Amino acid sequence: MRLITLAGSGPGSAGIVAGNRVFPLTGINESLGTAWPTTVLELLRTGEAAALSGWLRERGQEVLTAIPSVPLEQAHLGPLYHGAVNVWGVGANFRKKAPASFRRWI
Predict the structure, then answer these.
(1) Distance of CA 59 to the CA centre of its chain
(2) Radius of gyration of the chain (CA)
């Protein structure tokens, strides 16, 4: 599952990228009567991102065909989430190449 934030007022709405389309979570909630958190940060803080991913794996294609979507190239993207105190990006091979003094943190 690929999550993005659609730019807009406030913190922005989370969207799911499927193929070349973006499905806003607000649209999924309105169309299906679900109550998924509508920002990426809320999805991560509540742990609902994993549940959403599983739900999409089980029902994704049949569900997303009925949801309003936006072409990915027309979507206005915003920061993934707001209000983060620390954001760390770590490369996939960091553990192998990291100096010994940093390995205790990973």
Answers:
(1) 17
(2) 16
Helix residue spans in 8-93 (DSSP H): 25-32, 40-46, 48-64
Q: Which amino acid is at 13?
A: S
d(C-alpha 23, C-alpha 15), whole Å: 5
Query: Do 89 and 106 touch, CB atoms closer than 8 A?
Result: no
3-class state of residue 25 by DSSP: helix
Query: Distance between CA 2 and CA 4 in Å, rounded?
Result: 7
Tokens 């809320």 label which residue? 42
Each residue's pLDDT, cut to its tens digit, for the chain (106 residues) gives 889 999 875 677 899 998 899 999 999 999 989 999 999 989 988 999 999 999 988 887 778 888 889 999 999 988 887 776 676 666 666 666 666 666 555 5
Dihedral class, residue 36 (left if φ above 0, else alpha if ψ from -120 to 50, else beta): beta
